[in-house]
Automatic annotation (TrEMBL):
GO MF annotation terms: inositol monophosphate 1-phosphatase activity; iron ion binding; iron-sulfur cluster binding
First-tier enzyme category under EC: hydrolase
Domain of life: Eukaryota
Listed cofactors: Mg(2+)
Organism listed in the record: Arabidopsis arenosa (Sand rock-cress)
Native organism taxonomy: Eukaryota, Viridiplantae, Streptophyta, Embryophyta, Tracheophyta
Binding site for Mg(2+) 2: L93
Protein name per its UniProtKB record: Inositol-1-monophosphatase
Keywords, alphabetical: Hydrolase, Lithium, Magnesium, Metal-binding
Keyword Metal-binding: yes
InterPro entries on file: IMPase, Inositol_monoP_metal-BS, Inositol_monoPase_Li-sen, Inositol_monophosphatase-like, Inositol_monophosphatase_CS, NIF_FeS_clus_asmbl_NifU_N
Residues reported in the UniProt entry to bind Mg(2+) 1: E71, D91, D94, D221
Length: 377
């Protein structure tokens, strides 16, 4: 690990590079853009390429023995392996779609890893002139002033930020929308800002309380932000529960007060309503509505001894006794949403009826007296 003097030197170099790249971004932001497509909605501009070249050249001159990983270089020449050697990981323009549309949530992100651990982070938004910095063991700053994560301790009053990503296949879209639909019942509100690096900085300075993203571009999106969040007193973790790997394309961040987020797998595996196969004879699906407000409740049960959701271990008869007050408490529903728990109670009964009907038709009913267990989404 580098000593403090070296880390300070690395930070100064990264700030200098970020400011120079910021000048290019600021100039290009107000000009006509030449846009290329890396994917259906994954864009790249001449500004992306020019900024990466500038940052790389700057860092190579100062630290010729350091390795370099950049988003555009990787896109052009393939994946670059992250080693234990000092490695600069650069996103020259995070938020390219924002940049193309004139939405000012854009930045250059420069992180340094040593032993695969991020130790220096610089994220600069030149349009809003916000410079976020962090050095391992030395704190996090916004334009030179110390920053800290929020003190919000209740998930139900937390502000969550996430991103939809750039994949548009139906399976990914369904997974993303199901996850968002579920999380919206647990938090105060949700934002999508279009820049992973700035989302992390938002957690670091307390503007938002939680961030997660699955399937983002690569380590260049998060290397700098990880340092800044940690030095601001926040938590960084893999939402799947695995050890954090900055190349895994999975990340979550929160303040240190929201223990519930880290303790659960809510972000990675929420109870996605409707995620079971409706044609499965072991699945019952219930759909009920409230004519007065137009709300619909879709709920499924999966009759499976290995079920791991809330009501694992309950017999079908016990499932039918679950009351709306218990559901409301589990889902942390505010008073204005209590009718949702009443719909859920009716949906459970509807799902059980659907399951029993399937079993009867398939002639696969459980042997007389056998106790079956249910898990529900």
């Amino acid at each position: 690990m580098a000593d403090n003097d070296s880390l300070d030197q690395f930070l100064a170099a990264a700030i200098d590079a970020a400011k120079k790249a910021g000048q290019i971004i600021r100039k290009g932001f107000y000009e006509t853009k030449h846009v290329e497509h890396k994917g259906q909605v994954d864009l790249v501009t001449e500004t992306d390429k020019g900024c990466e070249e500038l940052v790389f050249n700057h860092l190579k001159q100062l630290f010729p023995n350091h390795k370099l990983i950049g988003e555009e270089t990787t896109a052009a020449y393939g994946v670059t392996e992250l080693t234990d050697e000092p490695t600069w990981i650069v996103d020259p323009l995070d938020g390219t779609t924002n940049f193309v549309h004139g939405f000012p949530f854009v930045c250059v992100s420069i992180g340094l890893t040593i032993g695969k651990v991020p130790v220096v982070g610089v994220v600069y938004n030149p349009i809003m002139d916000e410079l976020f910095t962090g050095v391992q063991g030395k704190g996090a700053f916004l334009n030179g002033k110390p920053i800290k994560v929020s003190t919000q301790s209740e998930l139900v009053t937390a502000l969550l930020v996430t991103e939809a990503g750039t994949k548009r296949d139906q399976a990914t879209l369904d997974d993303t929308t199901n996850r968002i639909n579920t999380l919206l019942t647990k938090v105060r509100s949700l934002r999508m800002c279009g820049s992973c690096a700035l989302d992390l900085c938002g957690v670091a300075c307390g503007r938002v309380d939680i961030f997660y993203e699955l399937g983002f571009g690569g380590p260049w999106d998060i290397a700098a932000g990880i340092v800044i969040v940690k030095e601001a007193g926040g938590l960084i973790f893999d939402p799947s529960g695995k050890d954090l790997d900055i190349t895994s394309q999975r990340i979550a961040a929160s303040n240190s007060s929201l223990k519930e987020v880290r303790a659960s797998t809510t972000l990675e595996n929420p109870r996605n309503v409707g995620s079971f196969n409706r044609n499965d004879p072991n699945v019952g699906t219930g759909l009920v509505g409230a004519p007065s407000c137009g709300d619909l409740m879709s709920l499924q049960i999966n009759v499976d001894d290995s079920a791991s959701e809330w009501i694992k271990g309950k017999t079908l008869e016990e499932v039918l006794t679950i009351k709306n007050a218990e559901i409301a408490k589990h889902l942390r529903l505010p008073p204005v949403k209590l009718h949702c728990s009443m719909l859920a109670e009716d949906a459970i009964k509807s799902a059980v009826r659907d399951y029993k009907k399937k079993q009867s038709k398939a002639n696969n009913a459980a042997a007389a007296g056998e106790t079956v267990k249910a898990g529900f989404h």
